[in-house]
Amino acid sequence: MQTLSSLYDQIVFLLAALILFTSFVMLAQTRLISLVNLFALQGLLLAVTTVLVAVVQETAHLLVSAGLTLALKVLLIPGLLHYLILRMELHRTEDPIRRPLGLLLGAASLMVFSYYTILPVVHLSLLATRNLIAASSASFLLGMLLMISHRQAVSQVVGFMTMENALFFLAVVSTYGMPLVVELGIAFDVMVAAVIFGVFFFHIRESIDSLDVDALSALSESTVEEIQQGENLPQGE
Amino acid sequence: MAWLVNVLQIVLFVAASPLLVGWIKKLKCWSQNRRAPSILQPYRDLAKLLRKETVVPERASWVFRLSPYLIFAVAVLACAIVPLLAVHLPTAALADVIVLVGFLALARFFQALAGLDVGTAFGGMGSSREMTIASLAEPAMLMVVFTLAVSMGTTNLASAIETLLHQLPLIRPSFVFAALGLALVAVAETGRIPVDNPATHLELTMIHEAMILEYSGHHLALIEWAAQIRLMLYGALLVNVFLPWGLAESFDPSSLGLGLLAIAVKLGGLAGLLVLVEILLAKMRLFRAPQFLGFAYLLALVGMLIHVILEVG
């Protein structure tokens, strides 16, 4: 029994590391299609974790939320995003990152930061998997960083969903899931959010002719080309 | 007995490295639907080069003449540090993995100097590229080493691997990252696709080939052989640190035989993986290489952080 539970802990740790890793790779990703694929992979890892926790901790209702995760975050939302990307012909556009290495170093320092802030909690908790709090909060912050650093609306939606994934992971491994009603509610929220985002993509593109959200901050008379030209000018002139 | 096995292992390392290259070439040909040369072809190439006349450029200094011997000698010395078949080796206990990084850097330094020495444009260009990549690969490599050292409590390869062998089949998340980081460094350092392409002499892209363009005869044979040893070195490092099972802990023939079988299977599998990656990826532009190696560094760094976050507390 001892070896089984330590094996369980190790597998959960490995899954946590892999989820963190997918968040990390997403940050450096410039292609929207690969970004969505990575998001689907993260959802799959999340579903595997949930099934594992459900089986080992004998919490049957987690199987339901694992099924929901699989249906929503692996199939439905990535499918929807794929459809939107193809429909708006964004599959060949790049979402440029200004300083990829600086961004990734920032991500690494966010990991240190989240570990530092979670340290008091780790000392208080008796749970074997308490260290995962730091890993999932780092993943949460990485999702936020993804939203800040990327400029395409699709990437920002993926960043938002990544943050939700991190919270869900935290709930599953540290408290063996939330009440089923809450989980159903969140799943429904996420699905509705995905649909609304989809509608908004079309509206944003219709009004500014691009999904680059930086263009939203410009005055309506200037076109996107002018804004992009303006960015290329050296600063301070 | 230990010294005998040790010497045997170094000889095996040096002798088997062209075989690994031959195997990689064979796999690559098969994957591209070409007829493969014999697996012994690298030996024949080396033998041919050793027989041929060695021409040295008129203006070459002693650095040019010394470099091939030095590069080869350093590669052989580096073989003494990395356990291939067995762990308890006298030479492996003498030096730790930082010395290994130092050896590789020394060989690279002389290779770059030799490229510069004759004063051709290609040589200088190759050297400059090689040093650019090396200066980025070395921190990444050291970061992997530190991750290993922090979690094992030692920088000595042999004792780290021994600790790993005696533990339960642990899954260490930090090692997953460190292994990926080391794999990226190995690809860059051994000049494989996507960083360099060992099969071409295209002047726009070549790195390693540009530096050794002026070498011929047995000088060239030594350098080529050293490059093959380096490939095997990184391969052995990857498989024996991150999948150490099968390494012999005693020197009786049966466990050594098992060790030989294990390393052959592991390196053969690793070669398959390498070929798979090479046929899937296109060669990168040279200016993308810093990003590639920066990613390797960050993988190793994240491995270290994950070790601190998940495995210590």
Characterization of this structure:
The complex is a heterodimer of chains A (237) and B (313). Chain A is mostly helical. Chain A has one domain (2-224). In chain A, 77% of the residues lie in helices and 0% in strands. Chain A contains eight helices and no strands. Chain A has helices spanning 2-28, 32-56, 61-87, 100-124, 132-149, 153-175, 180-208, 224-232. In chain A, helix 4 (100-124) packs antiparallel against helix 5. The radius of gyration of chain A is 19 Å and the shape is globular. Chain A starts with a helix and ends in a 5-residue tail after the last helix. The mean pLDDT of chain A is 82. Chain B is globular and about 60 Å long. Chain B is 73% helix and 0% strand. Chain B has one domain. In chain B, helix 1 (2-31) crosses helix 10 and helix 2 runs antiparallel to helix 10 (217-242). The N and C termini of chain B lie far apart (43 Å). Chain B is mainly alpha-helical. Chain B has helices spanning 2-31, 41-51, 62-81, 90-94, 97-117, 121-152, 157-166, 173-189, 208-211, 217-242, 253-280, 289-312. Chains A and B meet through helix 1, helix 4 and helix 5 of A and helix 8 and helix 12 of B.
